[in-house]
Amino acid sequence: VMSSVYIKDDSIQVMRPYTPINPDPYQDGHVDLLIKRYENGSVSRMLSKADLHDVIHVRGPMIEYDYQPNSRQEIGMIAGGTGITPMYQLIQHILHNPADKTKMWLIYGSQSEKDILLREELDKLAAENKDRLRVMYLVDRPSKDWEGQVGYVSEGMVKSFNNSDSISRLVFVCGPDKMLAHVCGEKARDFSQGKVSGVLGRLGLTSREVWKL
């Protein structure tokens, strides 16, 4: 199951969702969160200043997608920025289940190489599961030493990974609104999934094969 929790800033009555990144959150007694501090983000600022034993109000878990092991032969993931957290949660969940044989690929975009979150962890998982997990990084502002992909997610990048037929494939997308619009189209105004367009739409994927997080 892909899930998130909501954390509340009591001082201004604001709640924001965060995705646990440990393999089995809620079951092993703790929840690990990856939090990027934004200067205009009240909840992230509050959490960055929290001390040990401070009380934080958490609500959840909220189910984002009811994943079932082996329901698809292959799962694709396209993430931007902190949108990597639900993908990392799912990758760990699948790889920690010996009965789940699902294969995965991930395209992860960041502004620069230093902005790639969880890179060490992802590289380790990919190296240990070469037949199960493939990872591609791309950045907007490459350094002179950068050897990976540059720019926006393209049809060619997705084609290089997506080898399964339409019955067995599923692609998750999570990231900033502009990235979502480019890759698969924005969600509908009522926050339902909406029509698939963008890169994945041009490749012929439908709403049955794409899930916007």
From TrEMBL:
Domain of life: Eukaryota
Pfam short name (any one): NAD_binding_1
InterPro entries linked: CBR-like, Cbr1-like_FAD-bd_dom, Flavoprot_Pyr_Nucl_cyt_Rdtase, FNR_nucleotide-bd, OxRdtase_FAD/NAD-bd, Riboflavin_synthase-like_b-brl
Record-annotated Flavoprotein pyridine nucleotide cytochrome reductase-like FAD-binding domain positions: 8-67
Residue stretches making up the Oxidoreductase FAD/NAD(P)-binding domain: 77-184
Keyword NAD (UniProt): yes
Cofactors named for this entry: FAD
Binding site for FAD: R16, P17, Y18, L34, K36, V43, S44, T85
GO MF entries: oxidoreductase activity
Keyword annotations: FAD, Flavoprotein, NAD, Oxidoreductase
Family according to the record: Belongs to the flavoprotein pyridine nucleotide cytochrome reductase family.
Protein name: FAD-binding FR-type domain-containing protein
Protein species of origin: Phycomyces blakesleeanus (strain ATCC 8743b / DSM 1359 / FGSC 10004 / NBRC 33097 / NRRL 1555)
